[in-house]
Structures are given as structure tokens and as C-alpha cells.
Specification:
By secondary structure, the protein is mainly alpha-helical. It is about 75% helix and about 0% strand.
């Protein structure tokens, strides 16, 4: 579901980037989600569709932000529990796993404070930094996950079949190539050429 929402956000944003009523200027530079949403009524053929596009775009961003905040905070709290030997599960009560919940709440609160206090420029820098870190770590994570799925002593009867390996490696290679190209384009935009 998250990937479907992300695809619609990308498609909607691409439409806004492509459209520009001024024929002398090929591209419109958009720096934030707010600018994208504000431009949508101008992009679509009638204002009613533009308003619906803004609403759907907002729902998609809310969904992505909520899932990201929950998943990243929970995964980080779980990892801290693994490293430091704390109890780390939502199946445990706050009394049984206090440090897990403390870490989780602190991360959610700090993310909320940053989003409320930081300027748009700072938030953009944080977003780009997180994306570059994710692109850097993704190839290793995907590779190790597939290797774990092929570990017979660990997976038992659930070990990957040949066709699952073909599908998994194909998807992993595609994701690695695309994410690497994205990371390079963010760090070195001149390589792919910048819009005029």
C-alpha cells in the first residue's frame, strides 16, 4: 500500500514539474510539498480536480510520514534493544521493556520537534541526508536479507527456491541500480544534466 501511495505522489509531482503555463520557461522549480500542492489546481484541467489532487496528495504525504515515523522509530528502538540487551518488543508492557519505550517515545518526540521548529531549508537538508544514507545502506541490507533467506539451517523448509531467488535478486538489482542513480543525481546533479 505504501508503494502504491508513493507511486501516486511521484506521478502527481511529475505532472506539476512538467507543467508550466509560461512557454518561455521550460521548468518550474518546486522546493517543497506545499508548493507542489498549491500548483496542482493550475495543472489539472479544472479547479475541482485540482482540489481533489491536493487532498489526495496530502493524504499520501500524511500516510508516508506516519508510517515512516512509526517504522523507523520502532526499528531503531528494537535495534538499540538488541545492542544493549534490553527487552525490546511491543508485545511487552512498559514495565517489562522500559528502555525500549523510552527510546521509542524520545525518537517520536524529537522528530515532532524538528518538524515543528526547523525551517523548510533545514528539513530539506535532513531529508536529502536521510535519503543518501538510505541509498548507501540499502544495497548491503538487501544483499544480506537475500543471503539470510538462502541459509538452510536458519530458514529450514522456508529457504528460498530457485524462482524466488531469481525474483528477489532481480528486484534487488533493480532497486540498487535505481537508488544508486538517485543518490548520484542528488550528490552530483551535473552528471545527469540539470533542467534549463
Amino acid at each position: 500500500m505504501t508503494c502504491v501511495v508513493a507511486a501516486f505522489i511521484i506521478i502527481a509531482t511529475a505532472g506539476v514539474f512538467y507543467f508550466n503555463p509560461d512557454p518561455d520557461q521550460k521548468w518550474r522549480m518546486i522546493d517543497s510539498a506545499a508548493q507542489t500542492a498549491a500548483a496542482m489546481p493550475q495543472v489539472l484541467p479544472n479547479e475541482h480536480l485540482g482540489q481533489w489532487a491536493k487532498v489526495l496528495f496530502a493524504i499520501g504525504l500524511f500516510d508516508a510520514g506516519l508510517l515512516g515515523a512509526l517504522c523507523i522509530s520502532l526499528a531503531t528502538s528494537w535495534a538499540l534493544g538488541e545492542v544493549f540487551g534490553w527487552a525490546h518488543s511491543l508485545n511487552r508492557s512498559v514495565r517489562d521493556a522500559p528502555w525500549f519505550y523510552v527510546a521509542y517515545v524520545l525518537m517520536l518526540m524529537s522528530a515532532g520537534v524538528v518538524s515543528l521548529i526547523a525551517s523548510v531549508d533545514i528539513q530539506n537538508i535532513i531529508t536529502i541526508f536521510v535519503q543518501v544514507v538510505a541509498v548507501t545502506l540499502l544495497p548491503a541490507a538487501l544483499t544480506f536479507l537475500i543471503l539470510l533467506l538462502n541459509d538452510k539451517p536458519l530458514m529450514g523448509e522456508h529457504v528460498n527456491t530457485r524462482w524466488e531467488n531469481i525474483a528477489n535478486w532481480s528486484i534487488a538489482l533493480f532497486v540498487i541500480i535505481m537508488s544508486t542513480a538517485y543518490g548520484v543525481s542528488v550528490l552530483f546533479p551535473e552528471i545527469f544534466g540539470s533542467p534549463n
